[in-house]
Model the fold of this input.
Amino acid sequence: MVSIHFIVEGRVQMVGFRYFLKQKAEDLQITGWTRNTKDEKVEGVIQGIVGDISRMQEFIKKGPATADVLNYSFKEVPEQDFEGFVIRD
Done:
């Protein structure tokens, strides 16, 4: 099991990015959360088995067709106790 914090920059708000991530996370049985930041980025934590997290990172790098990802970062963080994948305010 691995837990990764991510930040995505670019045209990532108001384009369905968080809902896209929620759907992909549920498809891959990944837990965690995502939210918009005040500085117009999207951040979150994804947790799951290594292979599925690698696939999820590829989805994060590209986002939905309506997004334009300019930059992203990933950092491993301690495992947490998540129930599903949620969109936070």
